[in-house]
Design a protein that fits this description.
- Helix 1 packs antiparallel against helix 2.
- The chain starts with a helix and ends with a helix.
- Helix content is 27%, strand content 32%.
- It is built from two helices and eight strands.
- It is rod-shaped.
- It has two domains: 50 residues; 110 residues, Sandwich (Immunoglobulin-like), CATH 2.60.40.
Length: 164
């Protein structure tokens, strides 16, 4: 019986632990978008609250770094102000964050400023990393509640068995 409960607990907890990652759900500019007006800031919206912004880089189509101010974090939203508006061209923004639950996520987005160029830049080193499965904290809490219920039932049955 104890082995069964232990195995059941593992099956309930492992999927929830493996899939809890913050994802980029929206951005300004959007992935693949061609923006006609000047861009002086980027906004990244995530599926979970952001605890820390570990890394950010913005490069143009020639791989040249574009200077940016330190990103500001407000809940699920991160804003990156640029030192000056972007010139026409293709850009790659790469980011790495730590969500409020402690999990790290990283990814990138590409966009164009001005007239659409023939070729959108592609990553040279790191492909976009996405979590295996999207989830929210409801799944985690449901699994924890089920586990707690099982523990209470097993403890109750153990007490009944001792009284006999």
């Amino acid at each position: 019986m104890k082995k069964f409960v232990a195995i059941l607990c593992l099956f309930l907890l492992i999927p929830n632990m493996a899939s809890a990652h913050a994802e980029l759900v929206d951005s300004q500019p959007k992935q693949g978008e061609t923006v006609k007006q000047a861009v002086d800031a980027l906004t990244l919206d995530f599926s979970e609250e952001v605890k820390a912004f570990k890394n950010f880089s913005l490069t143009d189509e020639n791989g040249k770094a574009v200077p940016a101010v330190t990103p500001s974090v407000s809940g699920k939203k991160v804003t990156v102000n640029l030192q000056k508006p972007l010139a026409d061209g293709n850009y790659i923004a790469k980011w790495e964050i730590v969500a409020a639950d402690g999990h790290q996520s990283k990814g990138q987005l590409t966009f164009t400023v001005g007239e659409e160029k023939q070729q959108t830049p592609s990553p040279k080193k790191t492909p976009i990393e996405k979590p295996i499965e999207k989830t929210d904290h409801t799944t985690l809490y449901t699994g924890a509640a089920i586990l707690l219920g099982i523990i209470i039932i097993v403890a109750f049955l153990a007490l009944l068995k001792k009284k006999d």
